[in-house]
Design goal:
33% of the residues lie in helices and 14% in strands. The protein is globular, with a radius of gyration of 25 Å.
Length: 667
């Protein structure tokens, strides 16, 4: 069977919309396959605009893994801007993929990668445009199986009514298993229809099918029980973990965007997972254990990716890149390898206590020193003990001062506001720290021409972290603390004019908090917001707090709960949490103990370098930490350039693990 392209009907609409280039496809390294040559067809979606979604590493990896199979193909789709969405509805054009503009409705799977919960309304928009029923129970064999993945899939309960499956953990292997299941089911004549297909998928490790689990609620609104409705599906769903990342050197052929995107570089994931134990950081908790790529594996990926893309910058990615056990050697050998070229190296994510000038100088060798980003996260040393961010004020000032003394002129400090046990005084110490940084920097550099930018994000408690029981700070509390912080920074204009402050108000964080720790009842709120015109909630110009508050009040009232119940309420030790049946490997009792240690301001060491402290991941998942040193070294390539030293642009953004971009885009 051949599926007809929608492009002849789409093309006349593109002249009427902004940025039509994002809908035409044809990027360098995009892959196309004849529809009829394969048994299983995947549409992969990042539920945000093209410029945000195309650089996403997870989607690129799955795209290549699937297209390498002889029996499968994968094509991409992204969220459609409102101007084109309106025209598509008017002219009967469905949600389409970029490679061949095939209708998403025709695919066997629609895999959606959620990096943030604020993309949920974009999923509903895409389903509606595609002509796929919003609710999973209304779909039949003619509709794609809708699969949620990404970090937000570790609590997919708010979208349980809209997705058929959720994949927990690493996706490289599980998408192959799901492809095999679908292929075998089709070859057997599709026995038992869609229900049997979903039951077979539910027996794949790491795959959760919400409709096979029934939730009951207690009179106080908490979950009374969650039970299987079939005996042939697991009671607990465990995440998938890929070991030996050198065996999965993806992406090999990174996509190069046609339109401007948020990250225009070739990226290599140098390790996965983090055991620093920052209590706020869901990414660090759910991706354990640490698994490093070898120097030679990384070098091969860099070489292959540069040749395939023509990029002039390589990002060495992880949750805390300078923690790679051989990062110093890696940076030096990569800089040596690309001597005499315009190839730049960057570490977009590392820690204050892992930074050193030698490493930074290797990355910026003979290049322009644009700026450094450090993420202390908490304003006071007390609050940093609470969040297990073991960085002292002296450490930070010393590190920043050293950077200023070595030629850097601009530093960005990233903090969170609204952390558990936080007071106004903790936040005011952010101002004191910024002032001290400027004073010390002026003294060390002998110049007043230095800058410090303070960036503040509102804290949102996340599932599978020690803070999953914590009360979230209200929007009013966040806004109050931001106000007193601004006043403190501006109190001395001689210093204050050298300090910039960037922040968002507390309202988007409240909505994210509702979605991150919500249960299935929250799905009614998401649907109501979407029906009232809500989508692109991660973009400030489209986000409406009032729309969410109204929807929550009206849709949750019949259940006796409200927005505050999901956000500012502290949970008890024995409360059944919506994600308790979804296993990240972390023992719930260990998480509770760590929550108590947070309240006592006790710190926990990194188990990479200390004895195991029984979080539960390695024995539960059958995994282990994989770190160097390996003793390997990069083999020099044939010289790729001669003459001057590499023109390396210094982009040493020093963030801690989990210090993600602000949840609301400011475009």
């Amino acid at each position: 069977m051949t599926v007809e392209s929608l492009y002849p009907r789409l093309e006349p609409l593109l002249a009427q919309v902004q940025k039509p280039i994002q809908y035409v496809g044809g990027e360098l390294n995009a892959q196309t396959k004849p529809w009829e040559d394969v048994a299983v067809h995947w549409a992969l979606m990042y539920p945000d605009a093209y410029e945000v979604g195309l650089p996403n590493q997870g989607l690129m990896i799955l795209y290549e893994v699937l297209n390498e199979r002889a029996d499968a193909l994968a094509e991409r789709t992204y969220a459609v801007w409102p101007d084109l969405a309106a025209l598509m509805r008017e002219h009967g054009v469905g949600q389409f993929t970029l490679e061949n503009h095939r209708p998403v409705r025709a695919f066997d799977f629609l895999g959606v990668s959620f990096a943030t919960e604020l993309g949920y309304t974009n999923l509903l928009e895409a389903l509606d445009l595609a002509g796929v029923p919003l609710h999973a129970v209304d779909r039949d064999e003619t509709h794609p199986v809708v699969v949620a993945g990404g970090h937000a899939a570790f609590n997919p309960e708010p979208v349980a009514d809209f997705v058929d499956c959720a994949v927990l953990g690493d996706g490289e292997q599980v998408v192959g298993d799901m492809t095999d299941v679908h292929s075998a089911w089709t070859a057997a004549g599709r026995p038992g229809g869609r229900a049997e297909l979903l039951a077979r998928l539910a027996r794949v490790e790491g795959v959760y099918v919400p409709q096979f689990y029934a939730v009951a609620y207690a009179p106080d609104g908490t979950i009374a029980s969650l039970d299987r409705t079939r005996d042939d599906v697991p009671a607990t769903i465990t995440k998938r973990t890929v070991m030996d990342l050198d065996e999965w050197p993806y992406p090999k052929q990174p996509l190069v965007p046609l339109a401007e995107s948020v990250h225009e570089r070739m990226s290599v994931e140098i390790f996965r997972g983090c055991t620093r134990g920052c209590r706020f950081c869901q990414a660090g908790m759910i991706t354990r254990p640490v698994r490093e790529r070898t120097i030679t594996g990384i070098g091969s990926m860099v070489d292959t990716g540069l040749k395939a893309t023509g990029y002039q910058e390589v990002g060495l990615l992880s949750l805390s890149s300078a923690d790679h056990s051989e990062i110093g050697q890696l940076a030096k050998e990569l800089a040596d390898r690309y001597e005499g070229t315009n190839t730049g190296l960057s570490l977009p994510s590392t820690r204050v206590d892992a930074f050193n000038v030698t490493l930074a100088n290797e990355l910026s060798r003979n290049g322009r020193r644009s700026g450094l980003t450090f993420a202390p996260e908490g304003g006071s040393e007390r609050i940093r003990r609470v969040i297990n961010k073991t960085v002292s004020k002296d450490d930070l000032v010393r590190t920043v001062t050293t950077a200023y003394a070595n030629g850097w002129r601009q530093v960005k400090l990233y903090f969170m506001c609204g952390l558990p046990t936080e007071t106004d005084e903790d936040v005011l110490e952010i101002a004191e720290l910024a002032v001290e940084v400027i004073r010390a920097g002026r003294e060390a550099s002998g110049s007043k021409d230095i800058r410090c930018t303070v960036s503040i994000g509102g804290f949102v408690p996340k599932p599978h972290t020690p803070f999953q029981w914590a009360a979230q700070a209200s929007a009013e509390t966040i806004d109050h603390r931001l106000r007193v912080l601004r006043e403190a920074i501006n109190a001395d204009r001689r210093i204050g004019r050298s300090i910039g402050i960037r922040y968002h108000d507390g309202k988007p964080g409240v909505v994210e908090g509702l979605l991150s720790r919500g249960d299935r009842r929250v799905g009614r709120v998401i649907e109501r917001v979407w029906r009232d015109g809500g989508h692109f909630d991660g973009w400030s110009e489209h986000f409406s707090y009032d729309r969410w508050v109204t929807a929550a009040a009206e849709e949750l009232a019949p259940f006796g709960v409200d927005l505050d119940w999901y956000t500012v309420r502290e949970r008890g030790e024995h409360e059944v949490l919506p994600w308790d049946h979804l296993e990240s490997g972390l023992d719930k009792e260990w998480l509770w103990d760590d929550w108590q240690e947070a309240l006592n301001e006790d710190e926990v060491a990194d188990c990479r370098w200390t004895p195991c402290y029984d979080c539960g991941v390695c024995p539960t998942m059958g995994t282990e930490i994989q770190i160097g040193p390996t003793g390997r070294s990069l083999i020099p390539l044939t010289p790729v350039g001669a003459g001057p030293r590499p023109q390396v642009r210094a982009q040493v953004d020093v963030d801690v693990e989990g210090a993600v971009p602000d949840p609301v885009h400011t475009h």
